[in-house]
């Protein structure tokens, strides 16, 4: 397939392979005496030579999920992004068991890579704590999705960026494994026309093609996809776009609560708003709804944002 006609099934299958980690002998590889499992994963090439934070987070979800008793699914996780990843080196995920109770299990995982120098040694690029629960009955209520047009009638990223010659635009158009369609006008190229008055947006998202994966990997894909657009409500409010010269952004921390479990290859509506930006940081709150309008996950992300001085 050519860049203008990418193989969506191959790209989606590649995402599953990326998140499907290799086990490593913990006895010989673990640096912590309390580690119960060690896994290793590779990185997908990105424009600019960095590792996508959502990739490391999704891989970490896979790592911790493979160490809990059968029948327990992730219901919450909190990640700190501590250093940029280097795509030239595999990433190692070392899992500690913090608790196994009658219904819940809690795990901690550190994602590490070799340091840039011998003196630096191993460096931690992400730290995650995650909690799992066996399926149980209980009280039920949920918010419902706001009105939104169907995703099939919205332009794809490739259609929005058609004719733009830029490495990032080409990657988003032809290689990104998540199909993202903006309900609110995209801000890839230019700021929102309502800058200063709007701090919210909605996007539909799913994998580019159906994926054959176990439920844990669908949870990992949701974590992966949740990291693509949280900065955008902040940019909308501030009159910025992804192409603003001198703009620098990096995720500091990212939390997800799974209320219900879904397939990541079915359309999900991601509703996002930014309640605050201060001190070089911006906060985004997101809700993810399934196609029927039921709330399936809540996401909160804080990021570093360095924008050029104005005026």
UniProtKB/TrEMBL annotation:
Matching InterPro entries: Acyl-CoA_hotdog (IPR042171), Acyl_CoA_thio (IPR003703), HotDog_dom_sf (IPR029069), TesB_ACOT8-like_N (IPR049449), TesB_C (IPR025652)
Keyword set includes Flavoprotein: no
Chain ranges of the Acyl-CoA thioesterase-like N-terminal HotDog domain: 47-133
Pfam families per the UniProt record, alphabetical: 4HBT_3 (PF13622), Acyl_CoA_thio (PF02551)
Keywords linked to the UniProt accession: Hydrolase
GO BP annotations listed: acyl-CoA metabolic process; fatty acid catabolic process
MF annotations from Gene Ontology: fatty acyl-CoA hydrolase activity
Keyword Hydrolase: yes
Segments forming domain Acyl-CoA thioesterase 2 C-terminal: 195-304
Family: Belongs to the C/M/P thioester hydrolase family.
Protein name stated in the entry: Acyl-CoA thioesterase II
Organism: Brachybacterium paraconglomeratum
